[in-house]
Amino acid sequence: MGGLTMPSIFSYQSAEVDWCENNFERSPVIAEYYNTISNVSFFILSPALLYLNRQYCQQRALPLYFVSGLLLCVGIFSMYFHMTLSYVGQLLDELSILWTLAVAYSFWYPKAYFPKCIKTRKHFFWLCGVTTVISTLMSFIKPAFNAYALNCIAFHLLYLTWCELKKCDDKRVHRMAAVMVVWWVLAISSWISDRWLCGLWQAINFPYFHSFWHVLIAMSLLYCCPLVIYFDVNYEMPSFKPKLNYWPSDSWPVVVPYVVLEEPHKQC
């Protein structure tokens, strides 16, 4: 008697999650067409961060190279997941985000906020590493919950930003933080809409809000990363003063922020 066979974890549509966009509507090999191609935004984000913040990279290369490389992996794995909707794709998508956050915390989390039991950056690396490994193993239990947990980390990042802004009088920094929050609110609203209001969007034949999420969260990160770099220079590079500039220029209605380094350093 033949037994039931479990679907391969690499098989199309073996994931626990299926987003709102109709599957295989525009391509016989791409499950969610727009959710897949919208990840191109991450392929633009990573080199843009490296190029614009090259002065910072010359002085402290490792953090931004690591984070930019992992953001590229996020784009690749998200593209693979939405193309196949496979179980492996889902895990790679979510775990790449988890490890990107872990590396960013490891390098950029200010020492002023370390737990009292942590005395050095090396000890904090170990704490982040152990926590991330445990979180990685737990993510196999119920992958569908991972995305909600990862999005909740944003609230801690917003809290840290608020704490740092209270100590800074630079109006450009406050303006960039405000724009970052606007992009994030638009992004998370798109994510929630696609997840919770799918029936409505399918009824009006517009189930594309998750693809908006990819583009909008990349825009938010384009503002978030220079903001983090700005604060990192204040903490870790006291011989420099960070200054925010805008590309292509201040006069343009839509700009991309980046950090330049000036000497000598003066407290913000």
Structural class: mainly alpha
Share of β-strand residues = 5-15%
Count of strand segments: 2
Distance between the terminal alpha carbons, to the nearest Å?
75 Å
Task: Provide a compact summary of the structure.
The protein contains ten helices and two strands.
Question: Care to describe what's here?
Answer:
The protein contains ten helices and two strands. The chain is mainly alpha-helical and 268 residues long. Strand 1 and strand 2 form a beta hairpin. The protein is globular and about 60 Å long. The model has no long low-confidence stretch (mean pLDDT 92).
Overview features:
two-stranded antiparallel ribbon, 10 helices, mainly alpha
Itemize the secondary structure elements and their pairings.
Layout: H1 33-37, H2 40-52, H3 54-59, H4 61-84, H5 87-108, H6 121-138, H7 146-165, H8 171-196, H9 198-203, H10 209-236, E1 241-247, E2 256-262
Antiparallel strand pairs: 1-2
Helix pairs in contact: 2-4, 2-10, 4-5, 5-6, 7-8, 8-10
